[in-house]
Structure formats: C-alpha cells, structure tokens
Amino acid sequence: MERHVQRFLNKLSFASITIATFILLALLIRTPQTCVPPTASSNHLRFPRSTCDSSARSYVSLEKKNRRLWLTRSFRSQVSSYSDFFHSLQSVGLLRNHSKVLCVSAGAGHEVMALSEIGISDVTGVELVDSPPLVSRADPHNLPFFDEAFDLAFSAHLSEALFPWRFAAEMERTVRRGGACVVAVEECGDQEVRDIVALFRNSKLLGNQNVTLIGLRMTRITMR
After folding, report:
1. Whole-structure pTM value
2. 49-78 confidence digits (pLDDT tens)
3. Which end of the chain has fewer CB atoms surrounding its CB within 10 Å, N or C?
C-alpha cells in the first residue's frame, strides 16, 4: 500500500514540475502587451509613464529649446544687465570688439550672449554643466586652455567656487600679460576686496566699484 502511495506522489510531483515548466516557457516566449500603438513612430515617443500611457510626446530640438529660453523675459533681463556691466568695461578701455574673453562659471550663458550682442566676436563660456551653444563643459579649477590665451577673464561666481584660490589662479593663468581679470561678488567693503585680490597672486588691483547686476547689489573688482 505504501509503495502505491509513494509512486502516486512521485507521479504527481513530476506532473507539477512539468506543468510549471511549460507555464514559465510560455511567459518567457509571449510578447508583452502594451498600450503603445504598433504604428507609432519611435522618434516621437518617450518612455511611457505607465503600461497604458501611449500618448505621443513630440521631440523638441535643442535649437527650439534654446529659442524658448532666450526669449523669456527673465533671460533677456539678465542679458541686458550684463550688457550694461560690460559696456562700463568698454568705456575704460578694458574691453574691445577684438578682445578674446573667457567667462568662467557662465551658467546658462547670459554673460556670453551679452558680450556677443555688444560686439565682442571671440567669447568663450565654460561651466561644469554645458549649455550649448553658449557654454561648454569644463572644470573652472582646471581650465582646458593654454597660458595667456585670453585678453580678459570674467566671473560672477567666484564666491561659489569649491577652491577659490585655484579658481583665481586658473583665471590668471589663461589671461595674457597686460590683460585683466574681472570678478563680480556680493557687495562688500575694502577689507573683503583686499581678501579677494589676494587670491589673484600675480595681479594688482585696478579698481573696485559697487554696481547693480542682474538685480543684485554687487561689487565689481578689476585686476591686471
């Protein structure tokens, strides 16, 4: 009697394993069903938010994204503010149309566009995250440029640098002898200005002036 029971259990176990194997194979072979229409173009679809989200999402080109951004009131306002800032450098002879200018930590490129719009033909903007075509990706602490490659280097983000002394040294290195380094920092007094100038070990202070830039009260520090 026990032999018959054992044989029955063995057969039942074998049958269960066989059925489970067939089910697993069927699941692996079967093509998963989604709600995305088979005729939909893959060029105009993003990954669905869910299995039933098949609505097509149009691809927006970089050129179109930039055009939308550059035409916003906020962007244009900041570009206008930087234009006024750089016009003041032109008025004292530090900036000319043929000058080669480097903008360090240029963000979305407001200052790069401003310089181009006032007639500076050779402008390079760098940032940790690129924003083409105005700003290329580069580490401000290790700039990928030859020594004395620019006539003027500018930054409004020195205070945000991880290593300010290295940031300043790289700005100096890339500016030719007789060129200028210009930084805009939060409005400060004479002692703070001296502390900032001390970071630029190979430059001398030309002057400092309190200015309004992109709606903020700042101090412009110019060194040569």
Report:
1. 0.74
2. 566 555 666 678 889 999 999 999 999 999
3. N
Long-range contacts of the stretch 167-170 (C-beta < 8 A, 24+): 167/104, 167/140, 167/141, 167/199, 168/199, 168/200, 168/201, 169/199, 169/200, 169/201, 170/104, 170/140, 170/141, 170/142, 170/143
Alpha-helical runs (H) found in 37-189: 62-70, 73-91, 110-117, 164-174
Q: Is the pLDDT at 36 greater than 70, yes or no?
A: no
What pairing do the DSSP bridges indicate for beta strands 216-223 and 205-213?
A: antiparallel
Q: How far apart are CA 134 and CA 21, in angstroms?
A: 59
Tell me the average pLDDT of the chain.
Answer: 88
Per-residue tokens: 96: 């000319």
The end-to-end CA distance of the chain, in Å, is 105
